[in-house]
Amino acid sequence: IPVDPFDLVIFGGTGDLARRKILPGLYRRFWDGQMPPEARIIGAARSEMDEASYRAFVRDAVTEFVSKRKCDSELLDQFIERLSYVAVDARGEDGWEQLAGMMRDGVVKAYYFSVGPSLFGDIAERLHRFKIADDDARIVVEKPFGHNLETARALNATLARHFDETQIYRIDHYLGKETVQNLMAVRFGNMLFEPLWNAQYVDHIQITVAETVGVGGRGDYYDRSGAMRDMVQNHLMQLLCLTAMEPPSKFDPDAVRDEKLKVIRALEPVEPHDIVRGQYRSKDESYLVDVENKDSLTESFVAMKVHIANWRWNGTPFYLRTGKRMKERVSEIVVRFKEPPHSIFEEDTGQSANELTIRLQPNEGMDLTVTIKEPGPGGMRLIDVPLDMTFAEALGEEAADVPDAYERLIMDVIRGNQTLFMRGDEVEAAWAWTDPIINGWEAREDKPKPYEPGSTGPEEALILLHKDERRWRELR
Ligand code: BG6
Q1: If you measure from the C-alpha of residue 199 to the centroid of ligand 1, how many angstroms do you get, rounded to a whole number?
Q2: Ligand 1 atom closest to the CA of 331, numbered from 1
Q3: Residue 213 CA: which ligand 1 atom is closest?
Q4: Residues catalogued as catalytic
Q5: Which of 159, 61, 146 is nearest to 111 (CA)?
């Protein structure tokens, strides 16, 4: 279904995120017929560039990041015609009148701030002063949304001076991933899971976001952030919220976000012995070299045990882990159910607990292990078999060719649907929980434990679960 016609301005329109994600994503939506032919995209950045050069830049980006099958088409020419460019000085006066003159009446106006947070205030103020944004305009802001609670509050206050909360779309691209939304469909669209989704039946939950890449060319940013700020405060917290929240009364932005906020507010402070920080390091490859800071105490890995102090989850721990340069790239949520209270079978028949795995990437899908009798005449031997629902297999390759998180979220902005975006109070509550943990490390000059690149993280992370007689689901 096509969205309404729009004018989308991308500040940072020549940047890496625009090149890799935003522009290719918009093209895929155009290719699919969701972006209407009347829509326009205006790249805005500091450098002087004419329209033809910007269009050539976008054509290259689309050709590089969109599958060839979709680029071999005159649709790409039509898409390119939807593009314009304006040079603006975010801290000065240049370019803003021109941008104001380019915006059309009667279409949805959206402004994507694909720039560092230090420019959010300057751009918001100019959009207002030059009357570029009307009361219905939407702004989209990228993470990191602040560095701690204080800076996040200041950013919220700056944006609130010029825009209402209903106009602000804070992106956490994990919320745009297909399986994340499926998590809500599974929980609240079936009768099978929700009655068991609590401390009485769930032994524990694991949330893993493991990456094989290192810090790449972002060493400077990353070394000031670390895994806690870069991944836990946002992506892992969001996954935790969607897994743990109460059923919202409807699938509407505030109903969903109210429930997520309650989860964050119910998180108990984490004790130092329930958290492990790591840094990848070997003879050949080291985090310290990658970030060009030989004294860095920043973590590239975190594992932690988290408790939610409410009726539903009292006594069921959530184990979170995330890291760079790990063995496997995988993002998944594992719900480990309790063992049956009494076994009618003889000991060591192989009976074990059910496990529901919700895989965000790769091979998006779900599987549920169930215990059955091993076929054959060998007596009552039990085995676990997976009820595998890999979407590509279950729905066919085409249906599983799901939109990238960014393109889905941008379309939601145009539709005016904030459900999959973070509200200001949610972001602040997440920082209020992570700040004391990070401040504690800084005060103690806590040293991250070394781990071998390409491994499962420091040994201490394994011990964190062993102490509780549990094990991480294996990385392959
Ligand atoms: C970003 C982090 O938000 O998410 C990166 O800043 C990380 O450090 C990335 O690599 C992971 O996203 P995805 O979609 O590749 O899992």
Answers
A1: 31
A2: 16
A3: 10
A4: 235
A5: 159
Query: Would you say 40 is a known binding-site residue?
Result: no
Known binding residue 336? Answer is no
Amino acid at position 73, single letter: S
Pairing of strands 108-113, 138-141: parallel
Asked if residue 364 has its Cβ within 6 Å of ligand 1, the reply is no
Residue 190 is predicted with a pLDDT of: 93
How far is it, in rounded angstroms, from Cα 363 to Cα 356?
15
DSSP 8-state symbol, 312? T
Q: What is the predicted pLDDT for the residue at 401? A: 62
- Using the mean position of ligand 1's atoms as its centre, give its distance from the Cα of residue 210 in Å: 10
Peptide bond into 144 cis (omega under 30): yes
Find the 139 Cα to ligand 1 centroid distance in Å: 22
Could you report the predicted ipTM of this complex, rounded to two decimals?
Answer: 0.99
Question: Distance from first CA to last CA of the chain, Å, rounded?
Answer: 39
Pairing of strands 275-280, 355-361: unpaired
DSSP string, 370-404: EEEEPSSSS-S-EEEEEEEEEHHHHH-HHHH-PPP
Give 287-301 as a DSSP string.
HHHHTT-TT----SE
The structure's pTM equals: 0.94
Residue that the structure tokens 């500040």 belong to: 11
Residue closest via CA to ligand 1's atom 5 equals 230
Q: Which residues contact 304 (CB under 8 A, 6 or more apart)?
A: 232, 270, 274, 275, 276, 319, 320, 321, 464
Counting atoms of ligand 1 from 1, which one is nearest the CA of 174? Answer: 14
CA triple 94-97-98, angle to 5 deg: 90
Which stretch of DSSP H or E encloses residue 123? Answer: helix 120-129
Q: Cα(243)–Cα(197) distance, rounded to whole angstroms?
A: 9
Task: Quote the mean pLDDT of the chain.
Answer: 93
Does the annotation place 16 within a ligand binding site?
Answer: yes
